[in-house]
Write a structure and sequence with these properties.
117 residues, mainly alpha, 4 helices, globular
């Protein structure tokens, strides 16, 4: 299951990262768009890493990746909900970002935890 989750979310993150450099995703209300290049780049890099583990990585590697990435995204979402808008270096994260991070984190974590080796 971890490899499938990594493949699917890898494609989603890569597309969001690439489309983030346009105004196509502006209606989402998240802090993505041409003005948020650092945020978009993080999505592109995250997507590429996820795709690596989904397609070329071992099942154990994919499981570990999904658990770690799931925890990171969940903690980021939880911290955002507790603190409101977050400014982490060049990143600016708002309510829509926090909700999306919670969903992505739960999906990655679930993919990792429900994978049997």
């Amino acid at each position: 299951m971890a490899k499938t989750v990594a493949k699917i979310l890898g494609v989603v993150l890569l597309l969001v990262g690439i489309l983030g450099f346009t105004h196509i995703l502006d209606p989402l209300g998240a802090h993505i768009g041409p003005a948020y290049a650092a945020h978009n780049l993080i999505h592109v890099v995250s997507g590429v890493i996820a795709l690596y583990f989904g397609f070329a990585g071992t099942l154990g590697g994919a499981k570990t990746f999904c658990i770690i990435f799931g925890l990171v995204y969940l903690l980021l979402g939880i911290a955002g909900l507790g603190m409101g808008e977050l400014h982490i270096g060049p990143l600016m994260l708002g309510k829509a970002d926090h909700g999306i991070h919670l969903i992505v984190g739960a999906l990655f974590l679930g993919g990792g935890l429900f994978t049997k080796l």
